[in-house]
Amino acid sequence: MLMNYRGRLAPTPTGHLHLGHARTFWIAQQRAQAAHGQLVLRIEDLDQARCKPQFCQDIYEDLRWFSFDWQEGPDLSPPGDYGPYGQFQRLASYQAVWQRLCEQRVIYPSPHSRKDVARAIAAPHEGDREIIFPQTLRPTDWCVTDQPGEVNWRFHVPDGEIIEFVDHQVGLCQYRAGEDFGDFIVWRRDGFPSYELAVVADDHAMAITEVVRGEDLLLSTAKQILLYRALGWIAPSFYHCPLVRDAHGKRLAKRDNAVALRSLRAQGLTPAEIRQTWNLPPSS
Questions:
Q1: Looking at the domain assignment, is residue 238 inside a domain?
Q2: Which of 206, 236, 261 is the last residue of a domain?
Q3: How many domains does the chain have?
Q4: Are residues 5 and 100 part of one domain?
Q5: Cys-Cys with 41: which of 25, 59, 73, 198 at CB 3.0–4.6 Å?
Q6: 173 forms bridges with which residues in the sheet?
Q7: What is the 3-state secondary structure (H, E, C) of 106-134?
């Protein structure tokens, strides 16, 4: 654990919190408490088409009911020194990060659609392996600009380089750029940053020292490390939690109301009873 530990809870208000969210967030809180640190609540509401104000209010209610306690967040008065704590309010800071990356020429404009990318790939990929953006679709030249425009922007990955990090739960993780992942989008044609750019910018700006989240984001972490490096920022440490799955081994989703916290609450279950069913790892 680091001195001056700062962790975060980062829900997305596109639906109700479920057991998987609760378990991951509880581990985040345990680790912050064990380090005598601070816990930040940040609302990741960039997807304005799906994010709803009522879901946001429900998140506050569900977290409080489950005995979560954060020291900074949009619902507190005062909210804290690192706000605003909603991503939609931080668009200007994301564009400033995009500008830095553009000036360094580590990103490039990419007008290609998903269909264009699919056509350029010789063989289909199976399972969860992501489609690798073809090197042949990289532009040979482009001009630095002060506005992203209505086009996607991608990060030029260092082909062949192994990106590695030690996760506090998983252990050593290694991904090869250009094989496990390709040039990834950092800015979307609709005027919003990608998940990778937004969370890197937020976690740096909010001085987060450890990111606790689900293990489905391990590959995304490798991409984020490249962004930290390009920006000259020190990356936080990481703890990726095992996913909570249903009886068929499928990861939980917000559309499954049976495992939503408020559904369990309506059934008369208490937070303590729910937590007793978890085999939680040590908090330090």
A1: no
A2: 206
A3: 2
A4: no
A5: 73
A6: 165
A7: CEEEECCCHHHHHHCCCCCCCCCCCCCCC
- Whether the Cβ atoms of residue 133 and residue 183 lie closer than 8 Å to each other: yes
Per-residue pLDDT of the chain (284 residues; tens, 9 = 90+): 456 999 999 999 999 999 999 999 999 999 999 999 999 999 999 988 889 999 999 999 999 999 999 999 999 999 999 999 999 999 999 999 999 999 999 999 999 876 666 555 433 333 446 789 999 999 999 999 999 999 999 999 999 999 999 999 999 999 999 999 999 999 999 899 999 999 999 999 999 999 999 999 999 999 999 999 999 999 999 999 998 876 656 666 556 665 899 999 999 999 999 998 887 655 54
- Could you tell me the pTM of the whole model? 0.90
Structure tokens at 64: 């409080």
Regarding whether 98 and 55 lie in a shared domain, the answer is no
Which residues are CB-contacts of 232 (< 8 A; sequence separation ≥ 6)?
A: none
Residue type, 138: R
The full DSSP string for 154-197 is EE---TTPEEEEEETTTEEEEEEBTTTB-SEEEE-TTS-B-HHH
3-state SS, 136-157, equals: HHCCCCCCCCCCCCCCEEEECC
Domain that holds residue 78: 1-85+245-284
